[in-house]
Amino acid sequence: MSDQPPEQELDALGKRLREARGKTEDVSPESEDKNQPAANALSLAFRVGVELVSALAIGVAIGWLLDQWLDTRPWLMLVFIFLGGGAGILNVYRMARGFGYAVGYQREDDSGDDEPPDSGTRN
Amino acid sequence: MEIGNLDVSFTNSSAFMVLTVISISAFLILGMRRNALVPGRWQSMVELSYIFIANLIKDTVGSGGRPYFPFIFSVFMFILVGNLYGMVPYSFTFTSHIIVTFVMALVVFVGVTVIAIVKHKMRFFTLFMPPGVPMAMAPLLVPIEIISYLSRPISLSVRLFANMLAGHTLLKVFAGFVISLGMFGVFPLAFVVALTGLEIVIAMLQAYVFTILTCLYLNDALHLH
Question: Cβ separation of B219 and A34 shorter than 8 Å?
C-alpha cells in the first residue's frame, strides 16, 4: 500500500478507472463479431430444427389466414408453404454462415456473395 | 375465477412466477442492502450477475444498448430463476409452458420492431428488400424475408419451451422406471441423477441463449444493416 491518505488513493483509483473505461467506451459490436458459442452439437442441431420448422409454421399460418380472408382456399396456402420452407432454409443458411439471425443482413466488406440471390433460387 | 369471459384464475404457473419475482427482488435488494465497497459473498453474487449481463450487452450490442439494460437483465433473471425453481422437486416450471415463453418472445419481438421503426423510420423496410437486388426478385424475396422475420418469436419461444418440457418429461419417464424395474431400478436412478445435473446446465444455458438472442435482435434494430 502506498502512504497516501485513503481518500486520495480512491480518487486516483477513480481516475484510473475512468481512463480505462474511456478506452472501451464506444465499442461497436462489429469489432467483436457475433460468433455465438455453439454450446454443444445437440443444441446446435436442435436450433436448426426449430428454425426450419418455425418458418414453415409461419408460412402455413399466413397462407391459411389469407385463404380465410380472401376465400381462395387452398391456393395461397400452397404458395405460402413453399415460401415458408424457403424462409426456413434461408434461416438455417444464415445461422450456419454465422450471419446471426438478422433479416437481410449484409456485411459491408463482402457484399459479393450475399444470400438474397441465393435464396431466390431455392424454390 | 373469471372476469367477464376471461379466466383469470391464480394458477400454479402464476404462483411460481410471483415466487420468482419475489425471490429475485429479495436477492438483489437484500444483497445490496449493505452496499459495501468491498462486497461480501452475497453482494458479490449480485454484482456478478449485473456485470455478466452488462458485459453481454456491451459485447453484442455495443454502448448503444445500455438504455435497454434493465429490460434484458429482468428477462435473464426471470428465466434463469424460473428454470432453476423448476429443478426443485414438487415445484412447477412455468417456462415449460409455450404461452409463457411465447408472450416473452412476443414482447421482445414487438419491442425490437418498434425500436427499429422509431429509430430508422421508413428505412426499416429496406430490411425486407436489400438494395442491389433485381426488381424481378421482389415478389419472391419479400415474402420470404417477411416470413423469416416473423419466425423469430416462434423460434425464440419454442427453443426455451421445448428444452424445458423435453428435459422434465425425460426426467419423469425415467423416474417412473425406477419403481417398475424393482431391483434393477438403480440403473435408471443413476441415469436420473446424471440427467438432473444436465438439466441444471440446460436451465442456465437456455436463459443465456434467450438473453443473447434478445441482444442480437436489439443489435439488428439499433444498427440496421
Answer: yes
**Nearest-by-CA chain A residue for B206:** A43
Residue type, A29: P
**A22 has a chain B CB within 8 A of its CB:** no
- Closest partner residue to A47 (CB to CB) among B154, B159, B216 is B159
| DSSP string over B16-75 | HHHHHHHHHHHHHHHHTSS--SS--HHHHHHHHHHHHHHHHHHHHT-GGGGGGHHHHHHH
Burial of B56 (0-12, 13-18, 19+ CB in 10 A): buried
Question: Is B75 in contact with A41 (CB distance < 8 Å)?
Answer: no
With beta carbons less than 8 A apart as the criterion, state whether A117 and A77 touch. no
> Alpha helices of A25-101 — where are they, by DSSP H?
41-70, 75-97
Is the CB of residue B169 less than 8 Å away from at least one CB of chain A? no
- Give the domain ranges of chain A: 54-100
Contact of A87 with A62, CB cutoff 8 Å: no
- Output the pTM of the full model: 0.77
- For residue A5, whether the previous peptide bond is cis, meaning omega lies within 30 degrees of 0, is no
Nearest to B145 among A27, A50, A104 (CB): A104
B63 in reach of chain A (CB within 8 A):
yes
Q: Which cell is B32 given?
A: 445490496
Between chain A and chain B, the number of residue pairs with CB atoms below 8 A apart is: 118
Strand (E) or helix (H) holding B82: helix B69-86
Interface check for B145 against chain A (CB to CB < 8 A): the answer is yes
In tens, the pLDDT along B62-90 reads 888 889 999 999 999 999 999 999 999 88
What is the tens place of the pLDDT at every residue in A25-75? 555 544 344 444 445 677 778 888 888 999 999 999 999 999 999 988 888
Question: Which residue has cell 389466414?
Answer: A65
